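Obj.: predict assembly geometry.
Materials: sequence records (below).
Method: joint structure prediction, all chains together.
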Amino acid sequence: MIPSVFQVVHRYVEYPGTFTLHLAKPRQSTEGFQPGQFNMLYAFGTGESAISFSDLANDDGTLVHTIRAQGSVTQALERLREGDSLGIRGPFGRGWPLEVSQGKNLLIIAGGLGLAPLRPVIYQAQRDLLGAHKTYLFYGARRVSELLYRTELQQWSRSLEVVMSVDYGDNNWPGHIGVITDPLQATGIDGANSVAFLCGPEIMMRFCIQVLLRKGVPESAIYLSMERNMKCATGLCGHCQWGPNFICKDGPVFCYRDIRTWFQIHSL
Amino acid sequence: MKTIAALLHEHPFFQGLPDSDLDFLASCAKNCVYHSGDYLARENTPANHFFLIRAGRVAVESFVPNHGSLCLLTLHAGDIFGWSWLFPPYISAFDAKALDEVRSLRLGGACLREKCEKEPSLGFELMKRFARIATERLQSARIQLLDIYGPNPSHLGKSP
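Observations (raw structure tokens):
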């Protein structure tokens, strides 16, 4: 697949090292996508990186991606400014199975940058498009200053049950200090009638899954977004193979019931 | 007005205990309100009490020289604070500070120890409940130490 050239139309620093790009394709409409899918963003002269969509498709055709500058490609993407160009291939992968939340409690559990691929789900829940009985957002981060979308978090708390937790905070922080598993554990939910969407560090998801299972959430109702370094994004190169799955093609969103075996193998 | 036994019954820590046990323990308990900034317990002072938090937020803190108080975790309605009264030398390991108005039930440590000695089956049941919470707090502290949201975790944005 040949990348299409997009232009940065807006750039916003969420916190140092993490930024959101709004991207537009001049004179052409962009393809539709599902929340949870990703694009390959190509920093010319450096390489590609898989980045999830962090907003719904906008009427003006712009795409939104939130990125942490970590490796050489994402550092090159960080150097882009409004008006600069980059290449995009996508959308790729399987997104969140939004239909499963119909009539259920929807638990959206995000850690750190993991909130980005879940933000489109939150928008849909806010607009009552998912038919969920009640929607909860559990969001954990390292520090208050490292929370994504801080203004929106306040807005979301008016229509959703939003619980935030930071590892380190001071007395001015009105949320929890500690780990996100604690408020998740303390929440009174009917686990059997709940579905959970998780995205964050694997270790965080592992501990959250333990809590969810204790609360009676079925394995078949737990979905998580897995991340591995990806190259071709079409299941051909084998770079992101994980057990029998290619994360780029069969994921990145998986049902826990289907990947439990691989999730627990340390060397994978 | 609710009795102390009824308030004990409402708190998750005592959920499922028979009324007779709660009546037995009620004489150890007192209904207390703390205002923002009040301390429920101070580090390195006698640990005389066990707290059931009914409403409000409590910060568990430790004082770091040349830095000030560092909040390790916050406790909320349904949580408990304090088990240093269980073991000699009965000294609190941390500060516990009310962050807003905190309504709690405060149980005397010596009174509880005495009740547990008198009624070993009740004592064992309470020890199991303390052990479960202590284990959960230990696990949480370990996760916190892992710094999972730090610069090198394996999650979205980890890119070449």
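Conclusions so far: The first strand of chain A starts at residue 4 and ends at 15.
To do: check interface contacts against the pulldown list.
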